[in-house]
Design goal:
Structural class: alpha+beta
Distance between the termini: 109 Å
Radius of gyration: 42 Å
Low-confidence stretches: 226-230
CATH superfamily of the largest domain: Efflux pump adaptor protein, beta barrel domain
CATH class of the largest domain: Mainly Beta
Largest sheet: 6 strands, antiparallel, barrel
Order of helices and strands: HHEEEEEEEHHEEEEEEEEEEEEEEEE
Number of domains: 4
Shape: extended
Helix content: 25-40%
CATH topology of the largest domain: Elongation Factor Tu (Ef-tu), domain 3
């Protein structure tokens, strides 16, 4: 074979080899190639199920039929000398301490009800307690020294009567006994001071009321008024709801209608259809020249849970003959009563059940019964409540036709 024939055969072999690379592989793929697709579908299905889970859970909430608590009577809207104002507390306190410290305990939130003497908050008092322990130990040593000085003085007094001791030794013994007594008294006073500071590290409720504002959090530094720039001045604001009254600014041109004890009807801006009986408690002894008004305070005769600080009101002055409207009548469906020892109903608020204990008065027909306390009218109560329902359960409301 010639050299040219050999080259030709080699070129044909190389061409065939290159063409074999372009051949389509039609062999069956193994099942392992499908696993990524299966995993992708599983992940997608899990995501869809997770997104739909809240709806499924929500649809499992039991359905309840509710009805609105009725309220009839009370003061009707009237015309006459009137003025706008706001509900304000006569007794309010910003709870704080006399000493600075870091807040380690806070037992209230907005809306918390506390009684007089309840512990509202505590400051870190470990340093003070360590100082107190040291002073008590010093007092024990001082008392022992006081006893030794007393015995030494008595011994010198006995010796001086028999001329076995000089006058200077007796005076020195008496001075030592007096100094020991003074040191014991000084340490006792220091102990009382530290104990008072430790007591001040606890914030107590000065009166019974409702916390309307929380001003600090655990971990923050609390100081008395005028403390550091990064210190809180108080931990909470407490209001005595029993002292809520109305602040009015009455125009000077209608001041003749105002007098101490004058009857008024008070209408909340939030519930303008119902009036509360009241009377003028105080008239400020000076006028506001810029506004041409005089400030008055009116106290409530009728009260309920709808009265809140800073609510806007309209106050109407009425004659004595019209100052006592018919008391309001609150009616609840008999079907809403629970089978409990005390009369109770389920009130639905924001989709949650709240058990409300009530007092009952007279029947009004076959379906309604008058409520003495516990409801004020306008609440939605559950009709024919199921025995499995519990306070705090989430429900779906289906109002009765």
């Amino acid at each position: 074979m010639t050299e040219s024939d050999s080259s030709k055969s080699s070129g044909e072999s190389t061409a065939k080899h290159d063409l074999s690379r372009l051949r389509i592989d039609r062999t069956a793929r193994t099942s392992s190639a499908r696993w990524p697709l299966l995993v992708l579908f599983l992940l997608l299905g899990s995501y869809i199920a997770w997104k739909e889970l809240p709806t499924v859970v929500q649809n499992q909430d039991p359905e309840v039929v509710t009805a609105r608590v009725q309220r009839h009577g009370g003061a009707s809207n009237r015309t006459g000398v009137a003025s706008n104002g706001y509900i304000v507390p006569r007794r309010q306190a910003a709870l704080s301490t006399d000493i600075p410290g870091r807040l380690i305990e806070l037992n209230v939130e907005e809306g918390s009800r506390v009684k007089q003497g309840d512990v509202v908050a505590r400051l870190d008092s470990r340093e003070l307690e360590a100082s107190l322990a040291r002073l008590r130990a010093d007092r024990e040593g001082a008392v022992a020294e006081q006893e030794r000085a007393r015995l030494a003085k008595e011994r010198q007094e006995t010796l001086s009567r028999s001329d076995d001791s000089s006058r200077s030794e007796l005076d020195s013994a008496r001075a030592s006994a007096q100094a020991a007594t003074a040191r014991v008294a000084s340490i006792a006073a220091s102990i009382q001071e530290i104990e008072a500071r430790i007591d001040k590290s606890t914030v107590y409720a000065p009166f019974s009321g409702v916390v309307v504002e929380k001003n600090a959090e655990v971990g923050e530094v609390v100081s008395s008024i005028g403390g550091g720039i990064n210190a809180r001045g108080s931990v909470a604001t407490l209001v005595d709801f029993d002292t809520l009254e109305v602040q009015i600014e009455l125009a000077q041109t209608t001041l003749e209608a105002a007098r101490i004890g004058a009857p008024v009807l008070i209408y909340l801006d939030a519930y303008p259809e119902e009036g509360y009986r009241g009377r003028i408690r105080q008239i400020w002894p000076t006028a506001n020249r810029a506004k041409a008004t005089v400030e008055l305070r009116a106290e409530f005769i009728d009260r309920d849970d709808r009265l809140l600080p800073q609510l806007g009101v309209r106050v109407v002055f009425v004659p004595e003959s019209e100052a006592n409207p018919t008391p309001p009548q609150v009616l609840v469906p008999r079907r809403a009563l629970l089978t409990t020892e005390q009369p109770s109903v389920f009130v639905v608020r924001d989709g949650l059940l709240e058990m409300r204990t009530i007092t009952l008065r007279d029947d009004v027909g076959d379906d309604l019964i008058e409520v003495g306390s516990g409801l004020i009218g306008g609440e939605r109560v559950v009709l024919d409540p199921d025995q499995t329902l519990r306070a705090g359960d989430r429900v779906q409301v289906k109002r009765s036709p």
